[in-house]
Design goal:
globular; binds flavin mononucleotide
Amino acid sequence: MSPDLSIQLAPQNSRGLLLANPVMTASGTFGYGTEYAEFFDIQKLGAIICKATTLEPREGNPQPRLYETASGMLNSIGLQNIGVKALIQEKAPIWADWQVPVIVNIAGDSVEDYAKLAEAMDGVSGISGIEVNISCPNVREGGVLFGIHSRTAARVTSTTRAATSLPVIVKLTPNTDDIVRIAEAVEEAGADAISLINTLKGMAIDIEKRQPAISSIICGLSGPAIKPVALAMVYEVAGMVDIPVIGCGGIYSADDAIEFLMAGASAIQVGSASFSNPRASLDILEGIERFMEKEGIKNLAEIIGAGRG
Ligand SMILES: Cc1cc2nc3c(=O)[nH]c(=O)nc-3n(C[C@H](O)[C@H](O)[C@H](O)COP(=O)(O)O)c2cc1C
């Protein structure tokens, strides 16, 4: 019998968020899902998280917005997206026919923005959950500003929670001095699950031009370089909260993903890896399955937290 990889990510929510397996795609690295459908059968994934959605469409930051670094990349996309109205009218009807659940990542300039976004998506067929982005380092207002203090993180969470019956995942930033306190605050405020981490603050300078390599100067670092940092934060947070934790940051292989699960994550997100290998998420899922079969593991629960020491 093949191993059972299913996982419930919102056990306290009346709708629940049952995934066939723990492999999700990270927001901003997998478009609206549709873009990747030609590369592999995306319906096999556990869930797709689409790019950040705001109330109004946004063009994002000026170019250059991407820069390759040693074992990683810097980005400053600045929340470029089609806006919630177009998302509901054009994308949700496509997702409604999919087997794979789609979770919408939302971002706002104010607490009220998050409430309006959550309210607009409530009951929309094709949307299975909300990921609250209080961790984007690439916008001037809102974004990470909500995620670096436990009081504001909790306010955004409870306001979003009150505005929708959908499962609410809150995505944390590593750019804070106490991620555990913030995780506890959002759990207390009603989050169904927590995802971490978003990008780390970083920058690069073009020495020929004698100016920053990315237009917004300070931007977000992702990729293999951030994996040990992300793993440590997942380990710390998973040890302190009772809601599911979703690990993200530099996951490029099944072994990386299994490390996060063993640190205490109930699911994982594949981000930058999809840029170098569009089918990275499926490769990772198949690798987890092979590992479980090889080790005689029948159920995902046997791996979650198994490497905490
Ligand atoms: C180009 C790019 C765009 C991103 N856009 C978003 C976004 O819209 N919302 C969000 O919450 N995170 C966004 N992220 C962060 C990723 O979802 C993820 O948290 C981060 O990249 C770390 O994972 P990785 O090292 O596997 O890429 C973005 C990352 C990249 C590289």
